[in-house]
Amino acid sequence: MIKFSSIILLVTLVSACNSKAPTGEALKREPFLIQSSIVDPTTQSLVVQITLSPPVSEQTAKTAAETVIERHKSQYKNIIVRAYTGASPTGLPPLSISTFDGTQITHQINNALMPQKIPSH
């Protein structure tokens, strides 16, 4: 009886382990990381601080802020997203501040913190 059970178990394992493993979709990584969010229920406002993943550009800052705003605009009347670069010390101002006032999104970019290209000879 034990021999028969062992054979059945072995056949089951062998037939279950074929060479085609199930494949899933790769997780989509966002180009930013949410560091903090503060909710003010009295004014229905949300303030979110994010850190951008390299490469950092004006467009990636805008896209990341718009993604955060799109997720939360049905819940809050006012949303402010402050985007920082990954290498920024906490004492520096944000790279961008994006504001949603219930109708439109405006972006303010701090060009002094944008990556600079150094001319070569």
Across the major sheet, the strand order is 1-2-3-4-5
How much of the polypeptide forms β-strand, as a percent range?
Answer: 25-35%
* Major sheet details: 5 strands, mixed
State the helical fraction.
10-25%
Shape type: flat
Number of helical segments with 4 or more residues: 2
| End-to-end CA span | 83 Å
Mean pLDDT: 81
Structural class: alpha+beta
Order of helices and strands: HEEHEEE
- Give the oligomeric state: single chain
Low-confidence stretches: none
Instruction: Please report the total strand number as a whole number.
Output: 5
The Rg value, from CA coordinates, equals 25 Å
Indicate the topology.
Blueprint: H1 2-16, E1 32-40, E2 45-52, H2 58-72, E3 78-85, E4 96-100, E5 105-109
Parallel strand pairs: 2-3
Antiparallel strand pairs: 1-2, 3-4, 4-5
Give structural notes:
The protein is an alpha+beta fold. The chain contains 2 helices and 5 strands. The protein has helices at 2-16, 58-72, and strands at residues 32-40, 45-52, 78-85, 96-100, 105-109. It has a 5-stranded mixed β-sheet with strand order 1-2-3-4-5, with helices on one face. The longest helix is centred in the first third of the chain and has 15 residues, at 2-16. The mean pLDDT is 81.
